[in-house]
Automatic annotation (TrEMBL):
Residues 18-167, 187-321 form the Allantoicase domain. InterPro entries: Allantoicase, Allantoicase_dom, Galactose-bd-like_sf. The gene is alc. Keywords: Hydrolase, Purine metabolism. It catalyses: allantoate + H2O = (S)-ureidoglycolate + urea. Pathway: Nitrogen metabolism; (S)-allantoin degradation; (S)-ureidoglycolate from allantoate (aminidohydrolase route): step 1/1. This is Probable allantoicase.
């Protein structure tokens, strides 16, 4: 069975985006903070601490009273949730038989008391779980979500919670319309690439600096006359003014050169190769270097990075100004969505 399309969307709860656990009723055996760790869960058998076998996940005590256990997660980026993964990897005799997930919208930095009193809407209603499995659930809730509440029935362990969805740009984060238009936390997203053999191109637009080569995008070695590429759909239409092509940590495998092209889908079909225009001509790159290039572009909605011929890159930053009227449109959309999820 093929993976659902929503798995390709960003994990809004990931620690890499700034997600975090803000409260739980119980974490006796293993901390709820593990739920939003971006790396896959691990397990070392017969590794015992003061409270028993050490698990890379969230695990509550055995419940002897009616009720259920819960953890509240602040999303790193607000958005519309399309699907969730309740991952019980390595929990075999101690996983919950079922889980529910609810969402709410509370702007700013709400307290746990404010979150407890929020109007929560269902994202997953009492879904059955299997042990040692990435349990996947589709969500049809259309409202903007800032926090989710994972409820397990009645107790047990969950390794990870993934909340995949579409980032909705928060206009309060760029009041003058200047932002990194490629950044996933602002709503940018990789929508196509030629090769992802060694590393996902989605990592190009993640926050912060890459800590290792493994946190970037790397292609296999080309043995033909072509080159590799990646296409980014920008957070919103904008005029680019500064590009950063970061090859940090890529020393013997950085691309020899790179170029940028763009298209405005409001005026031309991105599928039309002739519609793309040059933003940055083919330029030599250096290994392990944060390259910065000044740009002066007309508005674009998509950018294609071509690397020549292959190799790896840590990050792609595309700073610029939103196109005329776009910031007002984003503000109006943000305000309209306030009534579409619990707050």
């Amino acid at each position: 069975m093929s993976a659902p399309d929503w798995l390709a969307l960003p994990d809004l709860a990931s620690r890499r985006l700034g997600g975090g656990v803000v409260g739980t009723n119980d974490e006796l055996f293993a901390a709820a903070d593990n739920l939003v760790t971006p790396e896959p869960p691990g397990f070392t058998p017969r590794t015992f601490g003061p409270k028993g076998q050490v698990y890379d996940g969230w695990e509550t005590r055995r419940r002897r009273t009616p009720g259920e256990d819960w953890a509240i997660v602040r999303l790193g980026a607000a958005g519309v949730v399309r699907g969730l993964v309740v991952d019980t990897s390595f929990f075999t005799g101690n996983y919950p038989p079922a889980a529910s997930v609810h969402g709410c919208r509370l702007d700013g930095h709400p307290s746990l008391d404010e979150l407890s009193a929020a109007d929560w809407v269902p994202l997953v209603t009492h879904g059955a779980l299997e042990g040692d499995t990435a349990n996947m659930f589709f969500s049809s809730q259309a409202g903007l979500i800032t926090h989710v509440k994972l409820v397990i029935h009645p107790d047990g362990g969950v390794a990870r919670l993934r909340v995949h969805g579409e980032v909705v740009p928060d206009p309060t984060r760029f009041p003058d319309g200047w932002l990194d238009l490629a950044a996933v936390e602002n709503g940018g997203r990789v929508v196509g690439c030629s090769d992802l053999f060694y590393g996902s191109p989605a990592q190009l637009v993640e926050p912060g600096l890459a800590r290792t080569m493994g946190e970037g995008w790397e292609t296999r070695r080309r043995r033909d006359a072509g080159n590799d590429w990646v296409v980014v759909r920008l957070a919103a239409p904008g005029r680019l003014r500064l590009a950063e092509l970061d090859t940090s940590h890529f020393k013997g495998n950085a691309p020899g050169a790179a170029s940028l092209r763009g298209v405005d889908e409001r005026k031309a079909d991105p599928a039309d190769e002739a519609a793309w225009r040059d933003l940055l001509p083919r330029t030599d790159l250096r290994p392990d270097t944060r390259h910065r290039f000044v740009l002066r572009t007309d508005p674009v909605t998509h950018v294609r990075l071509d690397i020549h011929p292959d190799g790896g890159m840590a990050r792609l930053r595309l700073h610029g100004h939103l196109d005329d009227g776009v910031l007002d449109t984003l503000r109006a959309a943000w305000d309209r969505s306030a009534g579409r999820a619990g707050n």
